[in-house]
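Archive entry: two folds, one per protein. Generate the first.
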Amino acid sequence: MKLTADAGPGIPTLEEAFPTLFSRSTPVIEGGSFLFHAASLLRFHPFEASLMLMNGRGPARTEDKVSFLSGHPLLARIHRTKPEDSYRSLFEPCHSCAVALRPMAPTDDLRALLLAFQTSGFGFAPVTRGEMYATAGLSDVLGLYRSGTLKSNMTAREVASQTIAMEPRATVRTALTLMLERRIRRVFVQGTNAFVSDREVVSHIFSPRSLEDTKRWPGAMLEATLLEVGPVDAVEIDGDMLLDEAAAYVLRSQGGALVCDGGVVSAWDLVIKPFASGRLSIR
């Protein structure tokens, strides 16, 4: 059965596909916390997003949507701040760069989840059961390849995205400008298979040394080079590798991305591209 916009009944629900969804911990951050507190959570934990609370009582909501903090809107907020205001901006409440997403129900199916990813452009979505909240992300969906729930006859080369590379001495500010304009999560260091993603940028900006430098010279926050940030090596794979095998490599990789002769392969490429093309099936 194809997981496309026209899929029929029989697709697993979220509670069937992810039976431990509500039994695992969900990262949360108080909406009034300073930006640098919120960024520290993203820096030290491998979460795709953090659920935002309001006054410690429940998720912050905008009408029928739930607020989250993730790397992309956080960096977008920092990028548009005037250099001289960089340090002062770290003490703004983190809800100033929240992203609001409509929650899903455990009885919604996988098709609905993938459509939510595709529509929002984010690889995560809130799931609610009464007063309980959880987050389903692309990493959860990748695991369904491993279990055999999802299957595709596409190869890594067919879903790969163009590799965007910059000179090693390009600054974080220059890299972020490109990443935000093209809505990509990583840029490669020219001539290598190493990349800097939004996660490495957040980790660098909010490291103790960088915060101290920013306090003294606010304009220096985004002036580090890609090499100073610390690129991550992407695992190189055969372009003919099928997606289920490639998914296992992504789940084990440090930076969440692979490279092949067709370009870079991320979790988004492995899930959303075959889904959108009608070549993602369920066994």
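Generate the second and append.
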Amino acid sequence: MKGIIMPTPEIAIIDPNTLSSLGLSDLLEELIPGAIIRTFPSFAAFMDDTPDMYAHYFISSQVYLKHTAFFLARRPKTIVLATGEAGPQLAGVLTLNICQPEKELVRNIVQLHEHGHRHGHPGKLPATGHELTAREIEVLALVVKGFINKEIADRLNISLTTVISHRKNITEKIGIKSVSGLTIYAVMHGYVEADQI
């Protein structure tokens, strides 16, 4: 709809593991361009902020277990960062296994996003202003499915130089360089299904 400005989604990551927080923050920035993502090293630091303003809480399992009452009241917005299979204490809560290969982690983040926003995200992905060509979309889809440049060239019956050129154009147009970022972009724009990656 024209004239309506959608609110910018705000996401909180509450995790004492700095490396985990930064990595998740980078992935979420690629998933939801324009989102405001704040990281907090502790529940106390999070509570010193404005905790109810966030659309989502990504929270370490240790913090969740210590402050379950707060997050149970906000269950639809809570995603617990687990290290493996979720135990019985996390039953009924959305979890994200952070100890899995990057491709599966990206797929699970996309699936959580789709689960939580079946009717659209308030911060729907903006148009880049530089739309991809049909051939660039074909190349992008093959990149996110794990094909290397030579395999893409063979599948599309084009030269290796042309594949490299298309990949460069894709990166320049959408501003994403990592394969995980490209994967999220491709799924969110409907170029591939989450279960195809």
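Annotation attached to the second fold: The domain at 10-116 is CATH 3.40.50.2300 (Rossmann fold). The first strand starts at residue 10 and ends at 14.
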